[in-house]
Request: fold
Amino acid sequence: MATLLRARHILPIVAPVIHDGAVVVENERILAVGPFAEMRNAHAGEVLDLGEQILLPGLVNAHCHLDYTRFRRAISPQKSFTDWIRAINSHKRGLYDEDYLDSIASGFAELRKWGTTTVANIESFPELMLRMPKPPLRTWWFMEMIDLRHRLSTEAAVTGALAFFETERPGWLGGFGLSPHAPYTASGPMYELVSKIAEQLGMNVTTHVAESREEWHMFRDGSGALYDFLLTLGRWMYDCHKARTPFAHVAHHAKLGPRWLLAHMNELDDSDFALLEALPQKPSIVHCPGSHRYFRHAPFPLARLRAAGINLCLGTDSLASTDTLSMFEEMRAIPGLAPLEIIKMATLNGARALGFDGGKIAPGAVADLIAIPHTTPDADIPAAVLAHRAPVHWMMLNGKVIG
Reply:
């Protein structure tokens, strides 16, 4: 039997706002959406009246590191990105498996508190998956892959990564993917092999690219603080003297396309934009405003990336470089866009990047929904969503009310 969710306002994302509307949910999918009277006449079932609320899709956090939830404000802003890497590595050395499991659980609770129903999580310690309970949210687990010191051959590293997916996990919503960490920690051959495996198996891939100016100098000029630091760690620096940008380096080694989520992409030049525009199938790009502000990066090229036809998403990154896992805070940090376009970055665009039918209220979409109070006669519903600053108390995940 279907359930009719009635709300004062419905924000479908892909259609105009519906006042006094209803969403018809059957099993885990949305069956229909429209004015309440029309939906009531067309569909039998229980009516759940949410009252003076805005009903909208659950938020999609397209880039997060739940392992580091306990690092909130543990690392003050450093003089350089390289110094921050040293600091987080130092903190990680003092933690144990139980600490990371607690951190992941705390991260899920905070995401849920602020209305996130789907998260793309980079998992640095995949062995923890064997001890992890079923996630409370729709989660894409991306296995972080690093071959910085070539302790394992690239083939062995990828073979080990694939074992990450062999255990069946019934009831887990979401999916699994690969995450070569960044061009400065994952070799070109690793990107090549990950690209090939992901294409064969239909996996998503995410990676950090062009995050900092130091990364730019490392690849473009073969110099700088990051270059010097990694040289001391024994990284083979053959790829840093080819006058390529970080993005050009990744594009040289990987077959980029719609299954790729590129996090950050802060430091791009004209040749990078030409390369992006020439790609027959484009990757998605994930912007993390809070982390961007923490590192004092150059302005994010939002307008130019939109003009290039890129699917732009939002993420929080980790609490090692931001203060909150609230996607509402990330949305409020986007300047110069209409509120609805910003909300799309935190819903529809993230779902598209991950390849599932969500982030919208439309027939056939997964029934991942949230409701937030709205009692004023304000007709600008998207603006009211952006202004919301309280925890989200009502949530539906996969057709089931969970809060």
